[in-house]
Amino acid sequence: xxxxxxxxxxxxxxxxxxxxxxxxxxxxxxxxxxxxxxxxxxxxxxxxxxxxxxxxxxxxxxxxxxxxxxxxxxxxxxxxxxxxxxxxxxxxxxxxxxxxxxxxxxxxxxxxxxxxxxxxxxxxxxxxxxxxxxxxxxxxxxxxxxxxxxxxxxxxxxxxxxxxxxxxxxx
Length: 171
Known about the structure:
This protein is mainly α. The chain has one domain (13-151). It is built from four helices and no strands. Helix 1 crosses helix 2, helix 1 (3-25) crosses helix 3 (105-136) and helix 2 (63-99) packs antiparallel against helix 3.
């Protein structure tokens, strides 16, 4: 598997786990989100709440499992905060390096390398998060989560194939 494919797969997993974890974290104690949305937004009156997210919303988690996932998410957020800042700084450094005139190829390469390292570190942390959350699930829940993820990837691929491609230069 090429590095690009590994990175892309990692990014997809990050997106899936992140969105599911965010939905789970937003879950209130009654299973309907925090309920603070004044105009019926997610979690509010008529909102989609917990079930709107990633596969976790479709897995019928017990209250104990929900609490474990919240704790995992909180710990993950605390552990990755410095990494997220490093990633943000690396992205900014690359942007600055790319826009420099005249072009400083070694600076661009160095910034790109730093960004790649930060992205790889974040992908590893996201994989750990995914693994920790899957460790909380029963075998049946894990299987259902895999099925839901596969369906989501298939829908995304289908949307990508249907999306009209605009020639470069058009906005």
